[in-house]
Amino acid sequence: MLKKNLDTFNSIFNKLGKEHAILTAGNKTTGFNCLTVSWGGIGTLWGKNVCFVFVRKSRYTHQFIESTDSLTLSFLPHTFQEQVDKIIGKTTGKGIDKVSLANLHYTYDPDYDGAYIAEAYQVLKMKKINTLELDKLPPNIKEEYYINQDYHTMVICEIKQYLEKEDK
After folding, report:
1. Burial class (CB in 10 A: 0-12, 13-18, 19+), 160
2. What pLDDT is stored for residue 3 in this prediction?
């Protein structure tokens, strides 16, 4: 007999929406930039394990997403909530090192040519497969979310590796 387990069910859908997820894009040549993400999901597409996230074209990190295939998604403990919300989530990163400003650190992976947030307890190392511009939307969605026509790009990535902080 099957039983309802809403905790597990909800945790899958709340991973991106409720936890502090930081998307980092870039490589050794372009440098790195990151931003918080809360729209997206994890699933299977084209025979691959994928993660998809949504990033507005106006965000500085968007140019890093366009120029590289290396992306990571870092999940941070709630103890970092304040600096993640105030600095990573609200600062562009253009002309400043917002990761250092938030008292966080990048870990560079030379085999992957990508970086993730060292303080994360879970990380998805990903390779960008495709991007889709979300500009053909129903009028009610445009009116509610895109009054200034600052549309999101859907970024579809293959999950290449899952990292988890070891218990000490």
Report:
1. middle
2. 56
